[in-house]
C-alpha cells in the first residue's frame, strides 16, 4: 500500500507528546548517558527505490511507502551494538520519546591499515573511535556517525548501559565530535581544493624554521567566498595571536598568497588580497561571512 499526503496541509501528530511515564522510567533512564552502548540494534533507514547508494545488500521490511522510498534493513537483519547520541538530559525528558543510536562495529574487519590510522588520529570525521573495556587487543571498535536511527527510549527499559570508554574525558569527546559534524564550515569543494589545500601544502613544504615562524603567530585561518556552490571570488583571513603580531612573517605569507593565487586562478577563482588581522581588528561583518578552515579541510 502506498501512502499519499492529503490534498491540503497534512495533519502532523504532536511529535513531542509521550504516554504517561511509569514511576521506574526516570530511575532507569538516568543510568544512561551520551556515548553509552546498547545491544541488538538493527541498521534500518529509508531507502531509495530507484537509485540506491549504499553498497551493502538490504531487504525491505514492508511494501514501499511511496514510489521513492522503502524501509530498508541490512541484509540478514544482523543485530549490532549501537551508541547513544542523545545527550543525557534529553534522555530524561518525557517530551522527547526517542533517543538517537548509531551503529558500532569492529573497524579492523572493514578498513585497510591506512584508514585505520586515520581513524585512530581522528582524521575521519564521521567515524568515531571507541575504546570499550571489553575489546580484544586486535580490535578497533568505532561508532559510525553517518547513520543515526531514532529508537523509542522505552526500549532502554530492557537494556543495560555498556561502557564505550574507561576514561571520563573520552565521553566529553563524543559531544565534541557530534557537534563538530553539524557546525563545521561548509566551504565549497573548489575553494578547498584550489585555495585551502594549496595553502597548507605550501606551508608544509617549507623548511622547519620557516614553517615554524609562519604558524607560530597564527591563531586561525578563515575564508570568504562569494558563492556557496561555484565561487568566483575568495579571500583568506589570517588571524594573528595578539601577543605575536610583531613576530608575524609577512614575507613568507605573501609568498604563500602568490602560490595560492595561481592555483585559485586555474579554477576560475579570483583570490583577493589576504587580510592579516587580529580578532580586535576583524570586523563583525567579516567574522560572520567567513568560515574557519584548517589543514583537515571542512565538509
Outline the structure in words:
This protein has helices spanning 23-29, 88-91, 113-120, 168-183, 189-205, 208-216, 250-266, 284-289, and strands spanning 37-41, 44-48, 58-60, 69-74, 80-84, 98-106, 127-129, 141-144, 149-152, 218-225, 233-240, 270-277, 291-293. The longest helix is centred in the middle third of the chain and has 17 residues, at 189-205. It is elongated, with a radius of gyration of 24 Å. Strand 10 (218-225) and strand 11 (233-240) form a beta hairpin. Helix 5 (189-205) runs antiparallel to helix 7 (250-266). It folds into 2 domains: 23-43 and 78-183, SH3 type barrels; 189-293, Alpha-Beta Plaits. It is α+β, with helices and mostly antiparallel strands and 299 residues long. The model has no long low-confidence stretch (mean pLDDT 86). The strands form 3 sheets. Strands 1, 5, 6, 7, 8 and 9 form a 6-stranded antiparallel β-sheet that branches. The protein has a 4-stranded mixed β-sheet with strand order 12-11-10-13.
Gap from first CA to last CA: 38 Å
Sheet/helix structural class: alpha+beta
How many β-strand stretches? Answer: 13
Number of helices: 8
CATH topology of the largest domain: SH3 type barrels
User: What top-tier CATH class of the largest domain fits best?
Assistant: Mainly Beta
Q: What's the arrangement of secondary structure elements?
A:
Blueprint: H1 23-29, E1 37-41, E2 44-48, E3 58-60, E4 69-74, E5 80-84, H2 88-91, E6 98-106, H3 113-120, E7 127-129, E8 141-144, E9 149-152, H4 168-183, H5 189-205, H6 208-216, E10 218-225, E11 233-240, H7 250-266, E12 270-277, H8 284-289, E13 291-293
Parallel strand pairs: 11-12
Antiparallel strand pairs: 1-5, 2-4, 3-4, 5-6, 6-8, 6-9, 7-8, 10-11, 10-13
Helix pairs in contact: 5-7
